[in-house]
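Anyone opening a protein record will find just a pair of labelled lines. The record below illustrates this layout.
***
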Amino acid sequence: MAKMKNESNLKVTFCKRKSGLFKKFSELITLCGAEVFLFLVFSPTNRVFSYGHPSVDEIVGQLFGSSSPTGLSCETQQMIESYRSSNMRELNANVMQVEELMEVEEQHAKQIDHDKKVGQNQRWWERSNKEMSYQQLEHLKMSLLNLNAIVTQKMLEFSNP
């Protein structure tokens, strides 16, 4: 076995394998009544995923002793809070980035709609006859007669060299 080179394949495989491991732990707990102490997985992007039964907090409290109402030591609480706040900052940054992208895409959509309306107004002859005013229909008729005359003249020039 060797580490995957393709980043997207690596991320997909990590996600599937992580889910599979967590599912196996859950099955082990259900079938055997076992307690999973603490299972940490670090993703390729350095995100931490943890699993514990009955809960990660309870297991950490059992391990390090309880000096707080939650059953966790001060150091452990600080570490967990630090992780949560860094994770929250990362999620907030992602939300802001998505909102900015949505704003840009909305502006693109508005510009496309505007360009489409301008194009339709400039090419009025492509619209349905029912949408045209009498003056536009007269202009279209004159333009078509003029075009017909030009095509007829060109055809005569080609047939009589």
